[in-house]
């Protein structure tokens, strides 16, 4: 019992206490960041024009996973891509992006998963510079009235034909299925 108390129990406590201390410190860093969000937003608005080309350059050079995280931040993606998130934050620190320095420091100390709120705030600011990519769905060329009328008539004809086919199939299935006969079987002989 002495061995258990002196050797094993302290190691177990160390594992659990260390994690909770890390969470508490990360929560404190997040709280401090939240208090400075207004100042960061003001600084961001002031430097917006000079930051735009630099941010776009960094964004274009980053991996597809980071691009996805910036556009659609998710906790799971942040945990999976923690090293690339840290690299991206370090690049933002180099160009003096507002708020990136404290976020990068907290992320390197505690891990990106523990300071996700501030990271997502920075990503939100970065995403304002990202051009919106429209999918390859192009609007069809405007049709003339005669074309519109002919296509709507064609659609009506197709719909009517489908309804007729369904009715014919339903009638045919009713006619072809004879009523089930119930035959009485003779009881087995012993």
UniProtKB/TrEMBL annotation:
Region of interest: Disordered: 134-190
Which terms in the GO cellular component ontology are assigned?
plasma membrane
InterPro entries the record matches: DREPP (IPR008469)
> Residue spans with biased composition (Basic and acidic residues)?
144-190
Pfam families of this UniProt entry?
Answer: DREPP
User: What's the name of the protein?
Assistant: Plasma membrane-associated cation-binding protein 1
Please name the source species. Salix dunnii
What taxonomic lineage is listed for the species of origin? Eukaryota, Viridiplantae, Streptophyta, Embryophyta, Tracheophyta
């Amino acid at each position: 019992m002495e061995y258990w108390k002196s050797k094993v129990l302290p190691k177990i406590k160390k594992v659990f206490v260390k994690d909770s201390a890390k969470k508490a410190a990360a929560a404190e860093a997040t709280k401090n960041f939240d208090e400075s969000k207004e100042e960061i937003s003001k600084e961001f608005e002031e430097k917006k024009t000079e930051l735009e080309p630099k941010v776009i350059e960094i964004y274009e050079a980053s991996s597809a996973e980071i691009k996805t995280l910036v556009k659609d931040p998710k906790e799971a993606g942040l945990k999976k891509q923690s090293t690339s998130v840290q690299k991206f934050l370090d690049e933002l620190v180099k160009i003096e992006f507002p708020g990136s320095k404290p976020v990068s420091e907290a992320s390197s100390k505690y891990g990106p998963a523990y300071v996700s709120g501030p990271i997502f705030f920075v990503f939100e600011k970065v995403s304002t510079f990202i051009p919106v990519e429209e999918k390859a769905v192009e609007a069809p060329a405007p049709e003339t009235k005669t074309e519109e009328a002919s296509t709507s008539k064609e659609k009506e004809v197709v719909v009517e034909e489908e309804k007729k086919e369904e009715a014919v199939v339903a009638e045919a299935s009713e006619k072809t299925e004879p009523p089930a006969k119930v035959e009485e079987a003779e009881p087995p002989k012993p």
